[in-house]
What we know:
Blueprint lengths: L6 H4 L3 H17 L1 E7 L2 E8 L9 E7 L6 H8 L1 H4 L4 E5 L2 E2 L12 E2 L10 H16 L2 E11 L1 H13 L5 E5 L15 E6 L7 H14 L6 E3 L2 E7 L7 E6 L9 H10 L5
Parallel strand pairs: 3-4, 3-7, 7-8, 8-9, 9-12
Antiparallel strand pairs: 1-2, 2-4, 5-6, 10-11, 11-12
Amino acid sequence: MNRALTLHCFRLAVASAAIGVASLVHAEAALQKREFVVDGMKREAMLYAPAKAGSEPSPLIFGFHGHGGNMNNSARQYHFHTLWPEAIVIYPQGLNTPGRLTDPEGKKPGWQSGPGDQGDRDLKFFDAMLAALRKEFKVDDRRVYSSGHSNGGGFTYLLWAARADQFTAFAPSAAAAAKSQSLLKPKPALHVAGENDPLVKFEWQKAMIEHVKTLNQCGEGRAWELDANCTIYPSPLGTPLVTAIHPGTHAYPQQAPEVIVKFFKSQTRK
């Protein structure tokens, strides 16, 4: 497997950082907290919606935080809304839930790990968010995406397994489909993985990548035309896999959002 998203790819230039901070401050001011009631329980999310989302079909991105994270941190860390300001972006807040690799007592927020887990409360939360967003805005159903890191990446895989027909493409990071791998359908995907991840072992993620390549009937890998540091595995089904492999650990790479948005923009459901 090629080493994509190398250290060079993740080096953030000082000038770019200054520009990014300015745009992030502006975009954060546009974020709004939204509340949803799901099975009698209040759920929350941070929402960014472009001005034209009520009148023009707009892409939609879901960004799920990792275990122990929160919606505000994911909005700052992923900042998909600053990279694709024409898209509706929602950063949901998880509930306290036992982690599979850490926090077995469930003292920190996260997401259900498999079908039926926690009464499917997070799948129901997704359904409620999507229904509300479709009612309020003109969501472009050809361009609906999900991404998340660690436990949020695992939940992205679960959405792929349980709600694949609602999505165009997926971009999990530092994750694997723990309990739902057999339920996946061919879909375009980008997987971000660290070769020295001590939590979600790199060998687990490599096995996940190989499963997706087989599922999507992918061919030989080559440098991705949109980012030569990444590897694309084309698919005759129109469901390519892009891998963004870096030499880091479990931490979410600074440049991952740019690569993910680049991938999402390249994928439109017919």
